[in-house]
Design brief:
Number of helices: 7
Order of helices and strands: HEHEHHEEEHEHHEEEEEEEEEE
CATH architecture of the largest domain: 3-Layer(aba) Sandwich
Distance between the termini: 42 Å
CATH class of the largest domain: Alpha Beta
Shape: globular
CATH superfamily of the largest domain: HUPs
Strand order of the largest sheet: 11-14-13-12-15-16
Number of domains: 3
Helix content: 10-25%
Length: 345
Amino acid sequence: MSGGLDSSVVASLLKDQGHEVIGLTLHLFKEGSRCCSLEDVQRAQRVCEHLGIRHYTLNAVDLFEDTIIRPFVEEYANGRTPSPCVLCNQHIKFGILHTRAQQLGCSHVGTGHYVRIDKQEDGWHMYRGRDARKDQSYFLHRLSQEQLERSLFPLEGWSKDRVRTYAQERDLPVDVSSKSESQDLCFITEAGPAPFVERYRPDLKEQGDIRDPNGATLGAHQGIHRYTVGQRKGIGVASTAPLYVKEIDPITNTVFVGYRNQVQWTGCHIDDVHWIAGHAPDASRPYSVRLRYRHGGVSSQFVAQDNKTVYVQFDEPQFAVAPGQAAVFYDGEEVLGGGWIGKNG
């Protein structure tokens, strides 16, 4: 329970269904977090008191630091754009949280994620949430069969409006007035990731070249961690036409930029692939691949390089394929799995 609307409604729903419910809240970050902070713990406690259920707080600050924060920083140091929420779900919310729930004698963990799962003869399958605006399957594609076995997603077919109405009807002590929700990282402030990264790696504040695809120097940057592939604003180079970040080279400390048509790729390698079914699907036909959370997906063919790496050929060139981001495979509504975008081309 994060203390927010969705998880609070889930706790109430499960109690309505006759389950014995325990509220568990993760304390993940020491300061400045907008998710799972001490304030969130207090809000979750108030909801549990309202529902008449037990509440426990699990201190996972050190684990979050080692598993999420430091890899996040190193990805930027390596010229990549990290996807920490995917790892947090895999290792924290469906990792240590599941372990603690088992220790408390719980059979399942219910969360407020908008995603659908279904048990079939060959195992568990995952599908997009019915409300496309809230679908969070992209962030859950690395869950295992064992994790899915012990998970409940009561909001799988709900809309956000229905969730707000339910909270009001049950008089839950949560804020139902907000119509917009931040998709930013919970531990990053409005200043953006650069100041956060610099706290851990001040050495990254090193000036380097900004070059065009031909190698001509156009200007200078103050650290590669301030850039991501596809970025347009804040590049620091004047041009008659918009320039976008095309590539980041951490070896030479160089940021390469180009015009939009130069920041297109026909395919990419995807590393450390995880298939929800435990094996790759039939590669003889195309699947849709989402290259970032707000990406609509592109029909693609894939060729397995080995057990953990595939090469994906897009049916149409794609803009800003950023190394480090998650690439997730879909077969219609079903989530097949995914991995991390590696080398483009």
